[in-house]
Structure formats: C-alpha cells, structure tokens
Design goal:
Number of strands: 5
Distance between the termini: 28 Å
Helix content: 40-55%
Number of helices: 5
Mean pLDDT: 90
Largest sheet: 3 strands, antiparallel
Shape: flat
Length: 162
C-alpha cells in the first residue's frame, strides 16, 4: 500500500530547485542517489509483466533501483532485520525511552560529536541503571540497548538516544 507522500515524491518535486540552489555543494554520489530514488519503480527503470497462470490476470511491475539509500528498496531488508531482532527478545516487558539533548547543547555537540555523544550515552545508561536498581522503582539489574540518532524526523540536527 502506498503512503500519501514518499521521499521520491519530495525529490521529484523539490529536487531540481534544490540541486540548482546547491550546485557545486552536492556530490556526484549524492546526486546519483537522488536520481535513483526519483526513478525507483517508475517506467524510467524499465519493468516486467507479472501474470497469474490460473486466472490470466496480468500487471506491469516497474523495476526498483536497489540503491541502499532508497526507502522503497530497503523496506524489505528493514522488516527482515526487525524480525530477526524480535526473534531474540525475551518474553518480558520492554520500555522505549528517549534521551534528547537540549537545543543549546545540541549546537555544541554538532562540533564536538565524540565527546558529547559519549557523554550522552554514559548519562542515559547510568540514569536508567540507577533508577531501575532503586527498590522504589524496579529493584533490578536491567539490560539496555541504546542507539544514537543525530537527526530528527524533520531532518534537522536533533541528537537523541533511544
């Protein structure tokens, strides 16, 4: 099922003006990625016919770009990866916590990544371990999986650990 808006739609709509405005600052590699995503699963990539041998129904299916940056092409890989991770989960409750740097510190972190991201990991893990160990809360030793995200969904610098 197609969502209402895809990265390819944005690239096709805003890509030409973005490339013109940033000429000389966007690498050939980045331009090739944008082009691949724009053309993915369109007539520009060619296609093939899928046909049902039972009922005779057929449809044209456009080829994918197979670019590792393409959200359409990597959707199956992402779902496979997630299923593999879920298979390793214990049958216990899990909680999703997010530790976010305030905007003022995020600006400093942009220029001091190693130092501040390391500090964010240490602070987040020590906070969770301390609170979980407290008998008033959980009174237990917990395990943690933490992932650093440096950009938010709005594609702005937004360092946080999940």
């Amino acid at each position: 099922m197609r969502t209402s808006l895809e990265v390819a739609d944005i690239f096709r709509t805003a890509g030409p003006s973005y490339r013109a405005a940033h000429a000389g600052h966007v690498s050939l590699h980045q331009l090739n990625i944008m082009s691949a995503i724009e053309q993915c699963r369109t007539a520009a990539m060619g296609g093939h016919v899928e046909a049902c041998t039972d009922c005779g129904h057929w449809r044209i299916v456009y080829n994918s770009c197979r670019n590792r940056h393409c959200p359409k092409c990597q959707g199956v890989a992402a779902r496979t990866w997630l299923a593999e991770r879920e298979a390793n989960l214990l049958p216990v409750g899990y909680f999703h916590l997010v530790f976010t740097l305030p905007a003022e510190i995020a600006a400093i972190a942009f220029h001091n990544k190693a130092l501040l991201y390391n500090l964010l990991f240490k602070t987040a893990s020590q906070t969770m371990l301390t609170i979980a160990a407290d008998p008033k809360h959980l009174g237990a030793r917990i395990g943690i999986t933490a992932v650093l995200h440096t950009w938010g969904s709005a594609m702005t610098h937004h360092p946080h650990i999940q």
